[in-house]
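Re: your question from the hallway

Yes, I did run it. Sequences:
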Amino acid sequence: MIRVIRSIIAIVGLLQMFMLGPSYGQTGDETVIRDHIARFAGADFQGIAETVSTLAATGDPAVAPVLRALRGGDIYWRKSDRRVVRAEKMPKRMLRLLDPLSGEVIEDVRKSAVKKVKVNNTLRRMIDTALGNLTLRSPDRAMRLDAAGQLFRTRDPSTLPALDAALAAETDEGVAGEMRDARAAIMLKVGDATVDAQRDAIARLAARGDNAARTVLAGFTSDDPALSAATAQGIERIDRSLRLWGYGQNIWQGLSLGSVLLLAAIGLAITFGVMGVINMAHGELVMIGAYTTFVVQEFIRSSAPYLFDMSLFIAAPLAFLAAGLVGICIERGVIRFLYGRPLETLLATWGISLILQQAVRTIFGPNNREVGNPSFMSGAFELGGLTITWNRLWILLFALMIFAFLLFVMKRTRLGLQMRAVTQNRAMAADMGIRTGWVDAMTFGLGAGIAGLAGVALSQIDNVSPNLGQSYIVDSFMVVVFGGAGNLWGALAGAFTLGIANKFLEPFSGAVLAKVLVLIFIILFIQKRPRGLFALKGRAVEQ
Amino acid sequence: MEKGNDAVPAPRSGHTATLNRKTLLNTRGTIFLCVLAAVAVGVPYLNATGMLPDYAVSLIGKYLCFALLAIALDLLWGYCGILSLGHGAFFALGGYAMGMHLMREIGERGVYANPDLPDFMVFLNWQELPWFWWGFDTFWFAALMALFVPGLLAFIFGYFAFRSRVTGVYLSIITQAMTYALMLAFFRNEMGFGGNNGLTDFKDVLGYDLQSQDTRIGLFVLSALAVAVGFLICRAVVISKAGKVIISIRDAESRTRFLGYRVEGYKLFVFVLSAMLAGLAGALYTPQVGIINPGEFSPANSIEIVIWVAIGGRGTLVGAAIGAVIVAASKTILTGLYPEAWLFVLGAMFVFVTIFMPRGVLGVWDGMIDGMWRMRGMDPNERRLRA
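Structure:
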């Protein structure tokens, strides 16, 4: 009991010193700090508490590691000269002594040569608070934000004065906002706070609108009926906003999944949709794109590491060419003998897919290959209540870019015009002087090249292994069939619809069942609209 | 000008002959059944005399199950023109039905010695047997289910698909989606079918120990019998009047419909029958192999069945069985000798057969016979009319 009172006194003392002014001790007089630290030697709990508060009061960031070490039980004093040190454990019951401030190695000693500066739970709490306060005034913005967040979580009323002082000195609007949130959370814990202050606090927390704020509000009880009502309203408001953000997150994840599906399917929308070739080797063309990325990155790693961030830009055209060339070979070598026999094409291309898979397995081995993220694709950022990872965002943009590119090729170029002509009426197109064989090869090559581009993007989020293609083949056929073969917009709509549907089902059913449900939905959908969402109309359909 | 692209599909000369009235057993069918009988008697005999190792009996038994599965698919694809990329699902469902019975037969001999629940359910902390496992402790119910469940799935699926006239490639793709969805579902532990590991550790069937060679030979002979019965059923369908309608649906669906036939009904009949035969094949497969797991549902497996039929020669029934045995046997041999090479060979087989042997091994054989007739100055069509 006495100990508790003592520590409270110590904490109050510590806070008072904080209040003395922001400039105190900021200059970091090292000898002063060393003098304080020296007092740990032989001190009892009360003595340690006092030293901790004086140290904390210096406000010098250099103190923080010492306090952290103290909390972790790594501060000792040497019996021979009462010098206070930090110690690291060594084998054979030895300790390596380090200077607590500079971290310089002093010597290795037996455990018996030193004595530990012991801490109890009260002290630990006190150190935590002191650390939180120290970092509240840190010159580093991220550390201040972190400290404010820490206060929000602990909601210790005793930190209020320090927080107020830090708030007054704070110039950064973002950090100040976070501190005000923390202050509001603490206000609900302060017993003698005014009703007005608490009402403001509730309003502030409700406006914050995240799960942490909801926890705080849910834990708040008041005798005042007006406050209780305000709390209930606040919680309701938070729930509503959380639900909305939840939908937002689902939609974002759905778009992200949709972009992956679009990437996987869009090449197929050309080969299957436009040419009517069931290319079961499509997934393997995606795989070739991914492995091209791997090879490019390996080359860059070994010979030009400074280019690493550019690796994807280098890999993309190469992947397009590599997959496109393989595609043209497949078309000229196999598929052209099988036009008009779609089911046979399916079997032959399946055979090709097996060969390509095994070839990659033989060359690169059966294991996953590591493809790195360039720096602009790693990490995430927050947008309101959404967490958006950069790589997903880039992949979404990339998918849309490819879509736009394909649309352009199909509608605005000579090749696109010829492709559409050959698709609509092969004989007449040939009569008009279009080299149908060449157009077929180019069309298939384009679809295959796009698959290769997809591989570059998918290498960033999926395992690059010989089985990469297999995992996308069913999905991409679903997208094309659902969207309506022969229509690029159908593929776009199909991919995003399926992606979003999948993500909205997942919370209720789990990931696997969601996928099963989506597949069943497609099977049923095909019954209703056998030609997909955006069906081609006219005589060309029934061949 | 490149003409290859503009080529119309080759006229299927062989099919014109199928429109003639035929007997249940033509020469080829008789030879097939004789070979089958020889295998059914010869393999156990060779095994008994020690010339054939024990494992080979189960292996050939497995091939026979595949042969039955291929015949079932050939009835559907070769005669009705419906390419199912999900036939592995019916096979696996039949296998699971039988596997469930075998699991129940284990009884208290499981690792957890629970008399009421299979091991994996005890492991998952299930308290009681789910309703869909009820009745599987009786063999006849399980055997019935092995036919009924695939048949029911085929009926529901086919009813909707054929009614809304989903045909050709689209049908193939949604059958693939069906088997893919089932695979994902069966991989889940919550489904109550053993999840990832499937059903295994079987002890005995109808009181006969599954590990004993006598039981295995019994199952082997049963498989051979099933192939013969399956073949005769399919053959009976094909030569019947309905069979002619089915063939005409394959060759000209719209025309058949305009002639007043209910195309959907015929297709549904063939689809369900084919699924049930596939289920039978699966039911015989599980006890011989000793395990059934969700991998059987994988789309790749179903496509492999199609290639058996394509290699053997579709629209021949006998060819399908031959193709299944050729591919399955070469898989066994090659994966043993050169594991790396197997997928190359399989892939090359797909490509080679579709381009150079559109009528499969039997087609090549027919071509050779026709050639001999021509050399003798006779019309090969006449031979077909006689067959």
